[in-house]
């Protein structure tokens, strides 16, 4: 295989892999994709983003407020839970390129509509 | 680069053996390139680790670090029912319960079936009042109700208002931080760094570790000036390990633990020559429900209801155990409930609603399909395909036992169920054990020092506390008796390190 072809294959392969990985991307992250992978991958492209990376744009207190639940379900706020308070890091439940799984669901049959 | 260089220093052999092999270096620490150094190094942020951090802080340690593998704090401890057995407390006296350290130790020795350590149990029970006060000083708030756990001669399991270990973990974490303790998540313990003669100098840690991605992050060497405390819990989540030790604990049986309970600390200490003890004694929780994951809500609900409820075999419609016997007794009997093909046929815990509703968790178990309400004996029999006649008779007989205050069928202690008759409507929960606690681990002494297998002597600078230590409880641990054990030995390890 000629060097040029090899490069092309590598480049194409990389492109295909990236689009496959990005399949679960959220619409509101479109601009982040436009700005490049490093926007989130602050620890290198082959590493997971740091827990702080998401907090560049998302504010924990605001998130906790947005997912606030009332009455019986008050303690089931995933961003401010009885077990972890506001300290559960984003990546523990969310993944931009992987299936989402809330750690609460390891033990509880909670109804989290976006996580079914 | 520093990590890579230090790694290479140990030679190709050490690197090839992999992360679980201990790193031993000649005489002193100058062979290792240290990335961090701390006065007190604690691995694990559960009850044992945080109790040690708080106590070390109280004793004036200036530089304490707690490493946690997961992204969240508390490990298994933050998921439990928030109970702790203490003997002879002000709350027990207020509620008219007469108890003593001796009685608590006796109860645990009986459940340990000859294998429990009286010395370690007594050490832990005697520290109970101190630990009770320490948790209150951290801001933990106890309920006015004391829980009756199985296998005890008096009621002694104190519970925090959250009814979860989170009610201990969060205030203790806050208190630890107030002493300047550095708490670091996503730092996975990978092994001990020792001198050739076995003295522990520090640990190898995978910084920025991502759960289930073993190659994530970078390896760093952490020097421990006063010692290393391994407080990494049990191995209930390591199916290969637990099934090798007890063949009945395969995938058919779930577990109640946090994802991190894979035995990392235990395996590393074994590699370092620590004394293994009672590894096959693995306990399943008889209060678990197969209708939810982990510990869930069902455990708390059944714990409240066992004293005045009946557990029914679906094949016979009759009781098959003393519902307040110790955990092993009940879990062994529950896992034997099978259909004609040998498949699990979980038993039913049947509670009268008039009493069950006094427990705040009833709402949760009904809401999340962990238990169901029925208006009559017939409705239960129909839904679960129970033989109605023997089932009806069993309920009638039970009500006679309640009236007489005696259970001729299984000898259950009836004073907790006085006047609580089995009348409609009923709340029904299914029971199937889940792996809950590893009594086995490495051996420690009353200073929380880890004992070496080759000579029975302490391994210098190495301490262990909590579930990772073994031999304390013997064959079976009583409910509510791990929390005080973890905290007492965490406190002890801190005291030992600050004295050393």
Radius of gyration of chain B equals: 24 Å
**Tally of helical segments of chain B:** 16
Mean pLDDT of chain B: 93
Number of strands of chain A: 0
Strands of chain B, total number: 22
- SSE-based structural type of chain B: alpha/beta
Proportion of residues in β-strands of chain B: 15-25%
Most residues in contact: chain pair: A-B, 22 and 34 residues
The stretches of 5 or more residues of chain A where confidence is low (pLDDT under 50) are 8-17
Largest sheet of chain A: none
Kindly report how far apart the N and C termini of chain B lie. Answer: 34 Å
Helical amount of chain B: 25-40%
Determine the strand fraction of chain A and express it as a percent band.
under 5%
Cα-based radius of gyration of chain A, to the nearest Å: 18 Å
Helix percentage range of chain A: 25-40%
- The overall pLDDT average of chain A reads 80
One letter per element, helices H and strands E, the order of chain A comes to HHHH
Question: Low-confidence spans of chain B: pLDDT under 50, at least 5 residues?
Answer: 1-20
Q: What multimeric state do the chains show?
A: heterodimer
Task: Give a description of the structure.
The complex is a heterodimer of chains A (116) and B (500). Chain A contains four helices and no strands. With 116 residues, chain A is an all-alpha fold. The longest helix of chain A is centred in the first third of the chain and has 19 residues, at 3-21. Chain A is elongated and about 40 Å long. Chain B is 32% helix and 20% strand. In chain B, helix 3 (47-58) packs parallel to helix 16 and helix 6 (118-138) packs across helix 16. Chain B is elongated. The chains are: A mainly alpha (116), B alpha/beta (500). The A-B interface holds A 43, 47-48, 50-51, 72, 82-85, 87-89, 91-92, 103, 105-110 and B 70-74, 78-79, 162, 164, 166, 169-170, 185-186, 208, 210-211, 213, 216-217, 256, 259, 291-297, 363, 367-370.
